[in-house]
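Lab notebook: predicted structure, single chain.

Context: the supervisor wants predicted structures on file for every construct in the current expression panel, including those that have not yet been purified. This is the next one on the list. No modifications to the sequence; it matches the entry in the shared construct table.
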Amino acid sequence: MKTRKSEFTPPPQVRASTGVAGLDDVLGGGLPVNHLYLIEGNPGAGKTTLGLQFLLEGARHDERGLYVTLSETATELRTVAASHGWSLDAIELFELISNDGLSAELEQSILHPSEVELGETVRGIIEVVQRLQPRRVVFDSLSEMRLLAQNPLRYRRQVLALKNFFAERNCTVLLLDDRSNREAEQQLHSIAHGVIYLEQSVDQYGPERRRLRVLKMRGIPFRGGEHDYVLATGGVRVFPRLIAAEHRVSTEFSMATTEIPALDQLLGGGLARGSNTLFMGPSGAGKTTTAIACIRAALMRGERAAYYLFDEGVATLLTRARALGLDIEPFVESGQLQLIPLDPAEMSPGEFAYMVRHAVEEFEAHAIVLDSLNAYLQAMPGSKHLMLQMHELLTYLNHRNIVTILILGQHGLLGEVRSDVDMSYLSDGVLLFRFFEGRGKLLKAVSMVKSRTNPHESTIREFQLGAQGLELGEELIDFEGVLTGATVYRGRMALLGDDHAA
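Prediction complete. Output recorded below exactly as produced.
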């Protein structure tokens, strides 16, 4: 009887952390050791900073690091490090071009024939590596070596020679390249064990956007696509692209009450956990206040919540909530509620998704509010596939059993009301707010027009905001055209604003 051969499982590879947690996540644990990698990007993309982080991470694990520089001086590198609060004392800095090369006796050294100067450069690298025996090496930059080689064939041979030299000495090497020669890029891609591309672009408004892509990585699975990153004090921070399918948890279906019986009845029992509800309507119709009432109910139950505020100031929101009997400031002070004002013009979609993930996984929030989607979606017109990223974020929140409330403002007050973006197809539920005219007054109405999770009322109810918070009235059975803005009154039903004592 023949035995079936077991499938071959490659042995796990030892990894070298890059010093950037998000990049390690993209790579599935870091860079496989003892290989040569290419880090490419235009000047200012953060290659030098990333290289320094890589060496500093090695120093924390007692791995000797060497930074070989042809383009920057050791003083400049220390200045860059100091701007991030780092010390380079544990790293060896090796300058291949120094003041000695500018002396009167050797004033022609920079103009030596390429064969001589390239040979001296390679010999200098070999000598310092043999002397120090580093485990991590950063070479900055290949564009200088390319200029010295002048010949593509000689350039490729020299890079291959360095690759073999470092491999024999168990070095993990980062080669930094500023993409000054697109033709030579393909040669480097074929030689390197992995290629990471740092991209920066300027949108119509706001700061530059930075994105990272792993173009190639031999022997290991990695997270493909574009990943947002920032270059700020403290170094490079990478925000891995969110894949909602990786975060699915098994939970039982349940409802979260709003503690407002009439609103729960309209919603079909409350807000379903593991779903998102879109509060949609014109400005001033009560969307934010209703969201605060729902969040406050969760806070009163002892749950945690995160409220992301894109439009309104924190002080204004707290004052308004207090005036309506929905004071949430004590929960902010106790840390139970994270009330976070954001400027979407200064933030990438990836960074925002990372913040939400942190609130769910670290802060353990049960409810999330995004107020409003108008600012979030319109402030980043140059960001790629923004709606797809929002879809992935909402799916992730659903998988984590979060109650999510989205607020979307519409243009117009009465009559035709329009939206800049259509988010209804991404939402599990839609709560529609409208103004209407009745008895010479400007009144408000609310209706649940969609729910994927549970049956709900198909009625239109009047509601108003007062010192006691939200108050919902009976069904508007004597009115027609409330949702279209062309209201016609055909009866004598009592309204919330009527003087019942009379």
